[in-house]
Amino acid sequence: MSKNFKTICLFLIAGILIASFANLNVGFMKLHFSDFWGNTANSQIADLRLNRVLVMLLAGVSIPTSGFLLQEYFQNPLAGPSALGITSVASLAVAFYIFFSQDFVLPEFLQNSFLSFSAMAGSLLLMAVLLFFASRFQDKSFLIIFGFLISALAGAIVSILQFYAENQSLKNYILWSFGANNMVSKSQIIVLSAAVIFGLIMSFKTIKPLIGNALGASYAQSLGVNLHQLKLLVIVASSVLAASVTAFLGPILFIGIVVPHFCRLIYNPAKLWQQWILNMMLGVLMMEGFSVISELTKFPLNVITSLFGIPVILTMMMKKK
Fold it and tell me: What distance lies between CA 93 and its chain's CA centroid?
């Protein structure tokens, strides 16, 4: 590793530690060190804040990695987890659950579990559909078009459901879509961690083939890269990473596009191993920082990521990069 890369990593690690510490200490009540380790009156609040830091770490690792894989595979800097319709179908599955489960009385912890399960199931169903069509689309750009069509269809169905939904169901869906970073329990974090680890293992297997793929399909095949297998690995890894975070946090928009763009600005974009590491580290730093801003301003997490991401993407488009 070059000295420049190590320096960047050290700065990012320092930033992550500072942002995580700030995330632990921001809130309506001031906590002490003993609240995080001892059994005090504020221990439950300390646990909630610790869960918030951990879930932001997992989201910061997952979403940028998903965007990074899709951008490198499609060679398109505007590709992200929403490009394949993953986020949209997860939102559709949650909408179906919220709007059609209003007549069932369930405990609150079961409601949250079924909500997350609905988003995960919808995204994994789309992943199965993508894998089915992947073998039939010779041109990989067709997958982006297919994802766009799926997103449009899912958005239309969600709009229809919202039109006929009752007020409370509509409110519940809107609250979920905002992204709740402080409502994830320890048991949910364990499930999310398992999904993220699986997605990262799949991601690890894609980096070396992606290096060959960046040089062109013919050259990649001459190096022994199995392009069909690479396509499947990218779809599985990006789908699992994006779906798991969407299931527990709601749709986190634009981070999967913006973070890989910044990483290519601060370090050599041709070195994909280092780029992957930078994406995860910068993603964690940004998500922890956005969580702090969300707590201070009381704005939903998804609103903050959108306010940050939209101007950056517009700037990228205007500069034609």
Answer: 17
What stretches in the chain show pLDDT beneath 50?
A: 321
CA distances from 115 to 65, 92, 314 (A): 24, 11, 33
HEC letters along 123-142: HHHHHHHHHHHHCCCCCCHH
Which spans in the chain are helix H?
A: 3-25, 33-37, 43-74, 86-100, 108-134, 141-164, 167-178, 186-213, 217-222, 227-249, 255-266, 272-297, 301-318
The fourth-level CATH superfamily of domain 3-84+181-318 is ABC transporter involved in vitamin B12 uptake, BtuC (1.10.3470.10)
Instruction: Give 182-225 pLDDT, tens digit per residue.
Output: 677 788 888 889 989 999 999 999 999 998 887 777 777 777 78
**Cβ atoms within 10 A of the Cβ of 113, count?**
16
Cα–Cα distance, 69 to 171 (Å, whole number): 34
Distances (CA, A) of 240 to 45, 53, 167, 201: 30, 21, 32, 11
Instruction: Please name the residue that has the structure tokens 């320092």.
Output: 14
